[in-house]
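Deliverable D5.2: sample structural annotation.
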Amino acid sequence: MTDVDLMHHGDAEAEPGLLDFATNVRLDGPPDWLRERLVAALDSLGRYPSPQKARAAVAGRHGRPPEEALLTAGGADAFRLLAYAHGPTHAVCVHPSFTEPEAALRAAGHRVKWVVLDPPFTLDPAVVPEEADLVVLGNPTNPTSVLHPLATLEDLARPGRLLIVDEAFADCVPGEPVSVAMRRDLPGLVVVRSLTKTWGIAGLRIGYILADAATVARVATLQQAWPVSALAAVAAEACSEERGVAEASAWAEELTGQRQRLVEALRRLPSVEVTPNPAASFLLMRTPAGNTVRSGLRHRGIAVRRGDTFPGLGADWTRVAVRDDARNDDLVRALAETLASLRDEGEGLQTAVG
């Protein structure tokens, strides 16, 4: 059993009153057009929900028939269902990565082998054991923000192996050129997507699985009756329509510039490393005395995500969300002040590092 806290997430660090760089939810709440759809659906709450329209919309958004999509109560629920639907003998999680898939596999009684990547966290498919019959990885990966190339995913897919690709942040990449959500030719492929982060509806809990019809049907047998709420189904349908897809695409373009400016600002600070080529709505950085730095940021009103609960990372690693330029500037100023304070202390910083 791992001694890493797999159940720790950024929301535990994002307390009221702090600027939230700890979670990856883009908005404080749904945009007005989505809010209007949700409000209009309130009158349907007296009826049992039917997910069929939403399921068709989600599948259609990725060029698939409805029987190849399954709505779930967020991505975490998808990983839980997949863990119980399959009985792997050699499950592998590629780390550092989102820890819910491993937590779900362990809860279902499966042993999990780690493939831990060193900085800059790029994956050579050859390091995944040949006997692995279930492999989980993120793309782009949380927390590293690394986007693995399409050839890597194609190399990992093979008959007799379930390849689970977490694409919760795929819509952060303009055009989604590396997404495999539309790929119906790769054997054993399962894609997990989430709508909660892009659309500010983390409290609504809505995500989905894309896979071949037989896999979807097997997973569906484990769901309870009415597994997603009426409002969650409305959100899935709305966000999969042309307007939602177009808005997400425009945001991805905007995010690219915001992220690059933040990377450049952070790299100008002494003792700050940023993992190269980030592709998602967050960055992974390393500083000396990580615990002390995070405490200093918190004192200055900034919440960030500790890295040591991700397998393969230690206390000096920190994940930070990418926000708008003004809030990103607040983060950089607070970090600069924190690092300057630690340098002024001199011996205290040396003790924390060594």
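Annotation notes: Residues 350-354 have pLDDT under 50 and may be disordered. The first strand starts at residue 19 and ends at 21.
The annotation will be released with the project's public dataset once the embargo ends.
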